[in-house]
UniProtKB/TrEMBL annotation:
Pfam families: Aminotran_1_2. GO terms for molecular function: pyridoxal phosphate binding; transaminase activity. GO terms for biological process: alpha-amino acid metabolic process. The keyword Cell membrane does not apply. The lineage of its organism: Eukaryota, Sar, Rhizaria, Cercozoa, Chlorarachniophyceae. Keywords: Aminotransferase, Pyridoxal phosphate, Transferase. The keyword Transferase applies. It comes from the Eukaryota. This is Aminotransferase class I/classII large domain-containing protein. Residues 121-445 form the Aminotransferase class I/classII large domain. Its cofactor is pyridoxal 5'-phosphate.
Amino acid sequence: IRTSRVSFPGSFTAECARQHTLKILFTMPIDWETKLSASARRRPTNALKELCAPLLHKKGMVLLGGGLPSAQAFPFTKISAEFTDGVKVSLSEGKGLLSALQYNAGGVAPLREWASKLIAAKVKPLCEDWEVTLTAGSSDAIEKMFGLLVDEGDVVFTEDHTYSAALSNIRGYGGVAWGVAADHEGVLPAAFEEEIERAKKQGKTIKALYVVPIGANPSGAVMSPGRCKELYDIAKKHNLIVLEDCAYDWLQYTPDRKSKDVPGLRFGGFLPYDSDSRVIRLDTVSKFIAPGLRTGWLTGPKPFVRHFSKLSNLSTHCGSAISQSMVLSLLQQWGEEGLQAHIEKLQRMYQTRRNIVADAFDQHLKGLADWRVPDAGMFFWLRPKSLEAEKKDSRSLIPILLKHNVLVVPGGIFKAEGSDAPSPWLRLAFSYATDDDLKKGVEKLALVLKESAVASEEKEKASSS
Ligand SMILES: Cc1ncc(COP(=O)(O)O)c(C=O)c1O
């Protein structure tokens, strides 16, 4: 910014001009073309699909173009499903069956519209330049998203421990996953600023912040609106993209373990603060309906969504239209009230399991470990006291736990700096096991941690004598 060539009246100093220019720059929507990876910029569109898809339903058009199989060749007459609450969904001829079985550019449009309405009404993005595209679940979206953004050496900041599939994709595209210290609300703003400066000093290209704002995997952290806003402002100051993976917004719990209340349907994250279209949000039905459906959606700035859809048209075609039609039909029959009731039922079930584990930890693990009781998601995050010393790795406990037939995951798997890096943390999922198994698992964990505490005490004594 060359303020020296401009003459400003009176007390309008060069610093004033600099601040003014920065303000203008930072309230402008970001230039997505400068953020995309080289492969994203290079990739041509699916020309065949672009020509044929818009003409597919044009009246009077003789379709000799696309390689579509004949509807008469589909060996289905009906696809139907029954749900636990009595809702029945059925796709039959004239009722969505043939379009669900056919190639389907962009996925099932009414589901996309349903998701857009949900985002507008409940998440309330601040910017206007956003749209929704369907995905084959968040794993699909994560892989594509990093492919579209990350070039060799680009830095993506994350919590110091984060979702391992995101890390694999960042690294797979040659990026650097750069861990930032975190607390029970996720990434710490001061540490984020420090790490950005450190990366800049090393001459790195800083690209994005990837977070799981509600019920983080693995740490269980829940970002408050204040934390999201603070981190957003830092990302904006340094022109970073924010990638928010919102798989667990649906699974939120009441902190008070005695309460039978549940929070119900509510969403967190960064979109409500996104003044200049730099946030990409991922949602999935995996945790609130079923992962086998492979259905989700991405919300983001239109220029990015255009590139994302282009990639989808060349790969997954936005996922299975059969799954999407089933999900749509279920959501339509539920309506908002039915969805609320379903989410509350789920939250009650998982909240009870969370409380069982929290009570068992209080009973068996006091003095043996430190932990967080999560208010969202599926995971307890705990650090055995025997591993407190710097550089101790929880991986040493895994074979002993396996001998007791208990599986928990070592924190190292989620470590941003690399899965070989030591981490004293353990991740324990409370979502899957039965109530009895949860209690049994914690008892066995306590047994192993006691043995490990005794062993490390003896080691210390031997080394000091
Ligand atoms: C943070 C996070 N994102 C995404 C996923 C995967 O979601 P999907 O089943 O939609 O691919 C998971 C699943 O464990 C997750 O924990």
